[in-house]
Each structure stands twice: as C-alpha cells, then as structure tokens.
Description:
Layout: H1 3-132, H2 138-152, H3 160-167, H4 172-178, H5 183-188, E1 197-199, H6 209-218, E2 225-227, H7 235-239, E3 249-251, H8 260-269, E4 275-277, H9 285-294, E5 300-302, H10 311-315, E6 328-330, H11 339-348, E7 354-356, H12 365-372, E8 380-384, H13 391-396, E9 404-408, H14 421-424, E10 430-434, H15 441-447, E11 455-457, H16 466-473, H17 477-480, E12 483-485, H18 494-503, E13 509-511, H19 520-523, E14 534-536, E15 556-558, H20 567-576, E16 582-584, H21 593-602, E17 608-610, H22 620-628, E18 634-637, H23 645-652, E19 657-660, E20 694-696, H24 702-706
Parallel strand pairs: 1-2, 2-3, 3-4, 4-5, 5-6, 6-7, 7-8, 8-9, 9-10, 10-11, 11-12, 12-13, 13-14, 14-15, 15-16, 16-17, 17-18, 18-19
Antiparallel strand pairs: 19-20
Helix pairs in contact: 1-21, 8-9, 11-12, 15-16, 16-18, 20-21, 21-22
Amino acid sequence: MTPELMIKACSFYTGHLVKTHFCTWRDIARTNENVALAEKMNRAVTCYNFRLQKSVFHHWRSYMEDQKEKLKNTLLRIQQIIYCHKLSIILTKWRNRARLKSKKKEDELILKHELQLKKWKNRLILKRATAEESNFPEQSSSEGSLVDETLKCDISLLPERAILQIFFYLSLKDVIICGQVNHAWMLMTQLNSLWNAIDFSTVKNVIPDKYILSTLQRWRLNVLRLNFHGCLLRPKTFRSVSHCRNLQELNVSDCPTFTDESMRHISEGCPGVLYLNLSNTTITNRTMRLLPRHFHNLQNLSLAYCRGFTDKGLQYLNLGNGCHKLIYLDLSGCTQISVQGFRYIANSCTGITHLTINDMPTLTDNCVKALVEKCSRITSLVFTGAPHISDRTFKALSTCKLRKIRFEGNKRVTDASFKYIDKNYPNLSHIYMADCKGITDSSLRSLSPLRQLTVLNLANCVRIGDMGLRQFLDGPASIRIRELNLSNCVRLSDVSVMKLSERCPNLNYLSLRNCDHLTAQGIGYIVNIFSLVSIDLSGTDISNEAFCKSSLILEHLDVSYCSQLSDMIIKALAIYCINLTSLSVAGCPKITDSAMEMLSAKCHYLHILDISGCVLLTDQILEDLQIGCKQLRILKMQYCTNISKKAAQRMSSKVQQQEYNSNDPPRWFGYDREGDPLTELDNVTPSKGASELTVEKSTYSSEEQAA
C-alpha cells in the first residue's frame, strides 16, 4: 500500500467519522430546539392567558368601582334629600312660628297704637274742655300751683357743668334773653366758660355795636371763637377784636365793612388764630401780606369769593415764616387767580390736605397741575362749578393720596379718569360725581375694587344702568358702602334694588329719587336692608307699607310726589317708625287729617315736615302737631288749599321756619285743588283769593342742614 492510498484512506475515514458525528449532533440540537420552542410556546400561552385574565379583572374591577361610586352618590343624594326635607320641615315650622310671632307682635303694636290714639283723642277732648273753662275762678289757683312747681325746679341749683351744658344749646340772642329773667339767671349766663365761643351772626342787626364792644371788652380773655358772619358793623367794632388775645377762630364772612385796616388791627392783637374765614369780603393784597407775618400757626383759611387780591397777594404767603402750617384752603369763586397764582400757593403752602375750589369757571387742568406739583399731601378735593376740568386733572392728582373727591356738573370727566382709580387712589372713601354726563357703567366697574369706599354720590349721572351697578356691587366696595345717591339715574330698574338688598348690609342712606323704572315690587326689596336710616323715594311708584314694617330705625323719609300714597303709609309710619325725625309727603293728594293725627300721636321726635300739596289737610292738623310734635322746627305747607292763613300764622310762632300759601297746586303736580287728577291741563285756572307766602326764618342747626 502506497503512502498516497494510506492518506486517502485516512482522510476518507476521518471525513466519514466527522459526518457521522455532525449528523448525530444536528439531530440532538434540533431535538433540544423543539423542546425549547415548545417551552416558550407554553410560557407564551400562559402569559397570554394571565394578561387576558388581568385585563378582564381590571375591567371588572373598574365596573365594580363605578357601581360602588354610583351607589355611594345615590346614598349621599338620598341623605341630602332627607336632610333637605328635614330642613324644609324645620324651616316651615320656624317660618310659621316666626310669622305667628310677627303677627302677634304686629297685633300688639296695632293694639298699642289704637290705645295711644284713643288716649290721644281723649287728651284732645280734655284740652278743648279745659280751654272752654279757662275763664272760671279756678284758673288763678291753678296758676298759683304752677308757679310753686316752677319754683321747685330752679336750674340755678344744678352743678355748673350741667348749667353750661344747657346754655351751650342756646344762641347768643337766647342767652341774652335768659339773662334778663332774674338775678339768678343773669349770674348763670355770666359763667366764664359760656363765653368761649360767641356767635354774633344770630343777633345781627338786632343788638347795637355798643353792646358788642362791651361784650368783647368784658370777656376778651375768655373768647376763643368769634362769628361775625353777615354782620354790618362799624370798623371800630372789628378793631375791638384785637383785645381778644386768646382768639383761635374768627369768622368775618359776608361782612361788607370788613377792610384791610380791620385785618391789620386783628393780626397785631390775635397772633394765635388757627381758623380764619374771610369769605366774600373786600380784602386786598395788603391783607394777604399780613397773613404770613402774624398768623404763624394758621391752619384753616377761607378766601372764597374775595376778588380784591391778585396773584401778587398769593406770592406774599411765602414771606416771613409763611403759611406752611396751612392744611385747609378755600378759593371758591376767586376767578382772578391764574396758573402763576396756583404756583405761588404750591410754593408757600405745601402742607395743604383739604382744598375747595367751587364756582371757578376759569379753573383749568394746568392750574391743578401747577398746584399739585408740590402739594402732594392733598387728601380731600372739591371742584364744583369747574367745567373745564378734564381727565388730565385726575392724571395729575395721581401723586396725591386722595380720600375724598367731589366733582359736580362736569361734562369733560369721562370713564378714563376711573380706569386706574383702584391703583392710584386705593384709600378713596368719599366720591361725589353728581351730574357728570360722561360717566357710564364702565366707571362703576372700575370703582368696585375700592375697599375703603363708604360714600358714593352719582346723582343725575343718566348713563348709568343696571349692568354697571351690578358690577360695582359684586366687588368688595359694596360691603362698606354707607351712603348711596342714585337720584335721577333713570336707567335703573328693580334688578338694581334687588342687588342692593343682597350686597349692602351696612347701607344707611339711600336715594332713588325719580328713578321712574322702579316698581312697587322692586322697592319691596328695600325691606331686606335693615340698616337704613334715611330713604328718598320721591317720584317713584311706591306703594303703602312698602318697607315700614322692617325699617324700625328709620329717621328720614322722602316719598314726595308719589300720588298713589294714602293714609295707610302714614299709619304704617306711626306704628313702626316712631323715631322718625324728617318726613316729606309733598305732592301726595290722598293724605287726610286722620293720617296726620296718627302721626302727631306717635312720632314725637319729628323735626322737619313737608306737607306741601296735600290739599285735603285742614286747620285741625296744626292743632295736632302743636300738641304731639313739640320738637317740630321746620314746617312746609305750600299749596295747602284747606289750611287757613289765620291757623298758619298761629303755627308760625311754634316753629323756627315755616313756608305757607293756599294757592292751587301747580299744573305739574298732576291734580287740582280737590285732589282729583287733571285730564286737560289747559283748563286749570288758579284760584282767586290765594293767600300770599308766609315765611318765618331762623337759624338752621347742623341737624337740619344734614337732613
């Protein structure tokens, strides 16, 4: 065997052996792969089945959770229904009990009212019977007993503090009269503290200059406040004021004889004056030169309607120590002041906080801008009768921390002034924008964020409607609002009143005069404003007893020219509003004597009464008012055709101010002298023997001015 054959044989054998083992390995490998694939398949099937079960279980669980949630909500709703039903039962019982209690209280009030009215009528009968028997001899004995009782009530025995408190309520004229009663009363009227403040304006043209001179000479060290308003005195009398070294307040407004020379004497003798009123006098630049030199502590200065000084006089305010302590300034009617004059004021009176400029048609935006450049402390601003003021003024005032603003009769102030008012003036509390035609609902929306706002007057802003008022009341400003005047805002309807009753819990004063779109239903919502003290609903469609039952603290009510009102409104007032101090039923032709009799019997605190145009009233009501309303001060009886002139003259001695005539009602009242509605206005003729107007004038107190 050759080597080649041996090699071939070995190669063949080796190849055969390898082929045999590879095939065996391949068969074994294929068998293992099938087993692994089967295992994988089994695992895949198992995994699929598990995921399928998981998915089914997930859907089942979601379904069960939804069912549980539905069941829970159903149970909760059932509980709420049961709770609401229980509440409804409780509220129904409470409402029935409250109605029963209210009805019982109302019946008690009505019974009490009837008893008081019966007692009142018996009192009238007794008084008339006493008047008829006044000529009998027993009169002298009764007068003697009254004298004895009077002697027992001698006020001179009271402490000095109590006596002073009594005499402080009297005018100077009354104090002088009291001093003439007897020696004891004269001593009481000469207490030093009583003469700290002397008001000669109440006795002007009554007492001579000689008495004023002696009074000032005697009490020169006690006098702190002097008021000569409207007094026509000699220059010598004004010069005597210089003897009052401790004088702090001086008012010489409307005194035509007050001159620069009078001011010179006063300034030299009274350097401590803090308040000075020179309104409507003939002062010139000479007086303006005296102010900064002598009155170093002057805080309040009024130069209203003084047209004798010029811009040069305002420049003098910076002389000497200047008027740097001035905080109040009134420049009303000083039309001679130019932009330069306001610059002089800004340079010398940087501490001004209260500025009043009324009746100033020459006032422009540049004047205000020149003033506020250095007077950044202004908090109160009054601009009435300044038609040329525009939105630029509001922009210039953004540097001041305003709290009170008052504009009236301005057509150039628009919504743009209020756009950023909550950011520029966040502390605004009083806003008076009466008769500003450019203000719309957009302005009210801008005012809604003012949290400090308490007084808002938008009278005669005829472009304001329900939408703007609703947006204003939805803001935080409605919570603190205390006074709201919406007179002649003719676009307002019942929706506004309903919103007011919901959002204004602290509202005290409300005026909806001549809002003719309001109905009796809308006015009925006012019963929900329990804090109301004063309401003006004149010219609206108010019904009897609309809100009286809930307005127990009502003090001021104006329902004039509501022709559908009858005696029922007066009866409701007499029963529920016994604290009433001011009432106007002018232009209500259905009011009769019986209603006024009830009013006189119950409302004993009545100070102001207007019954003008109540044509059914007779002389009897005047007798009732004299007996029941002893605090009555102002009585208006215009166009009262059945009240005689003689009765009105007797009544005039019982009140401080009275207006009376018996003419036929004017045609615009809408009814004739009998109270019947007019059908043809052209056929109405005035009555022939009409009495002329009778007016008794007297000084108003602060209470009447507020009313």
